[in-house]
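#data-curation
PF: Archiving a pair of folding outputs for the training set. Convention for this channel: one message per protein, sequence first, structure tokens after, nothing in between. First:
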Amino acid sequence: MTSVTSEIKYFSWVSIIRLGLVQTALGAIVVLTTSTLNRIMVVEYALPAILPGALVGLHYAIQMTRPRWGYGADVGGRRTPWIVGGMMVLAIGGFLAALGTALMADQFAVGLCVTILAFLLIGLGVGAAGTSLLTLLAVRVAPNRRPAAASIVWIMMIAGFVVTAIAAGSQLDPYTPTRLVAVSASVSIVALLVATCSVWGIEGKPLPNSVDVSGGKANKPDFKKVFLEVWAEKKARQFTIFVFVSMLAYSAQDLILEPFAGLVFGMTPGESTKLTGVQNGGVMLGMIMVAVVGSAIGGKRLGSMRFWAVGGCLASAFAFVGLAISGNFSDVWPLRANVFFLGLSNGAFAVAAIGSMMGLASDGGQSREGTRMGLWGASQAIAFGLGGFLGTVAVDVARAILGESSIAYGSVFGCAALLFAVSAALAWQVAPPAELKAERETSPETATGDISLQPAE
């Protein structure tokens, strides 16, 4: 297969920031549906917490369709229509989620049906837009800019969380169902406009290695065949397993860290909320650190995504070990520093994982970047959905068996540490071909001719 790398026009920093704005818009809609509506159902309507938990789990479950959306973009060779279309579906889903929640106040059954439909649309929209956005970045961002690009895009998504939470929160008080629907509609419309304007015209013509379907259905490859071909690729399969295990560990603490701080360390709700802020600050700093160091010394081992993925996983495991034993020393343990270090490690690992996705997406050729990215996105979504749920179940079971809260939470944190240690071993086995080549070319053995470069699998 003839290389087309020389024909690809890589994105400028301005274009990368424009795509980051799409993530900002995506995050703006998602944060209202997964946090604000969650609180309203549980607090204002006194509904069981399992209801919003199940709805959030549904939006993750439907993202198992991500490989299909990535395949569709691969076939056409263009990602912009899938990004815009996905954002439209997401915006409609976000509005319907608020409408359904508002209806629950007086017409619970009708509201629940509308909300279920809404979360299905949210999952479909996030899957279609998110997969195609990451694929476009993977194909059109120069290798030396991938660490920074991954950080920029994810930091801008978190910025979407923060800005929306502050802006929408100021407009929701005093709460009324009508106000909720109005605020959600406004956020959805603004987010869709921002995303559409940001991505419009950025992609240009289809890349030269896209699949030509001008001859009709006969030239269109079968999705099942393409998916099985991608799954048969050793690196794609290994990376899928790495994403699942690491994201399972990453999300296991989402719903238990604040209760742990309250039960074991006696923190008030305000103090535990600030603790989450400390963790998110660490995440942001970890992402920035990878962006700066990775771009400054890209091509060397200390700038490689494999180095940061492995290091981030090992550091996260170490931080979880600290949390696991902290309950025994609650009077003197530096919990805030421990949680900050956990966030720092998580941020470095998460960005490195995304950067590795970008490098591996084109490995193997045959215009399968979107299908590979979809496979990894589906693995991540399933892990996120399971991680938070299993973390809470494990704590409840451990407390019932062991009695002591500190031991129960410590056992779950210990399991997360073990999963991150396994993730580090998996990350070491998989690295983008360009990084492997750079590592081998700079190693002493290669310099003396003892190692020959092998073609990527």
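PF: Second:
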Amino acid sequence: MSQQSQPKLVIIGGGFGGLYAAKALKKATLDITIIDKRNFHLFQPLLYQVATGVLSPADISSPLRLILRGHENTTVLLDEALDIDTGSKRVILKDHESIDYDYLIVATGVSHHYFGNDQWQPHAPGLKTIEDATEIRRRIFSAFEEAEKENDPGKREAWLTFAIVGGGPTGVELAGAIAEIAHGALKGDFRRIDPDDARIILIEGIDRVLPPYPTNLSAKAKASLEKLGVTVETKSIVTHITGESLTVRQGESQKEIKAKTILWAAGVKASKMGEILAKSTGVALDRVGRVMVEPDLSVKDHPDIFVIGDLAHFAHQGDKPLPGIAPVAVQQAQYLAKLLNRKFQGESLPPFKYNDRGNLAVIGQNAAVVDLGFVKLSGFLAWLIWVWAHIYYLIEFDNKLIVMIQWGWNYFTKGRGARLITGETASAHIGNLSADASIYASKSGELIGKS
């Protein structure tokens, strides 16, 4: 069968879902086009290490064309998907003629969710992209530089206060990493301040951190954070954020925390591709805009369109949707590859079933929590499992090697060689919020086609 007569599969999004689908279909009799606004796959689970100066962006990114270079049936397009015409089965692109499809996989992920308070975004950036990570890195290390120059004790204290909103895995990882920066990596680097005076505050709305984890592991994570010097405030709801402070409600009382570095890890919302699919197919969305998919990951009444990864709300296994983590997207991608191959042979496949191999979250060096279902671990052994799992899932061998070497060096030296301050001047962190606001406003729209 010639390539021209092969069924056309279009994949929107080069994250875990989209990329692993393309990889699994390397030998399929399909003409595959993968579309993404970025020319690289980003290993998001380690993005916080870029934000805290452990790794550089290139350490956790791989060019899509390099990864798929040996896939003769796959074309990579650097572009943005604007719409889907289900009648004529075409994907409308921003800078290219429309692409026809016989099958469509949408895996465009999620972005930050401020629960109706998008005005907080310039003051409290989230962590989903390389740009987010380098901006957070700039803010963290700029804060110590500004504190070094500050003569007013109150203002210096505000510069040395770091507030992280959200006690899920990202918030816990950020809080632990910033604590290690303040209480270890920067030791002896400054003359007028002691980085050890820094306050790191982790704020969570419910009664414990790491809500998806068993209660005992949440308690151990909290204890590990406190051992690192993190103040954990649970049952605390953020009601207001400015460039200088945030207001927190605890029960009937409210308090203001003076902090010039505020980071957001409290929620996500689906990419705009969810709205596009709802408009073009009539599919239902959940409250954060994720697509309600069928048991085989297809869109209702559109068996040729599939949604996977963070954008999919899969409610056919257990009493809650599957979590937005990389293993879910990878398994869904591999399932779809089998499903499509079976379709071409006139066969069917049972509904998708996620094989939960466990959850991992790192708190700091030698400290992590792991829930493998049959066993729950914390401390050094859990940390080793976390290290192995993340090295294993990195895409390219050179990334695996570089990250292993960097982690080994950091383990013994406790240094963070990637703590570069890039972008605007350090004082622009707070002093030019109007500029920051316009920059973030331009980024706030979800990047369709990006996981």
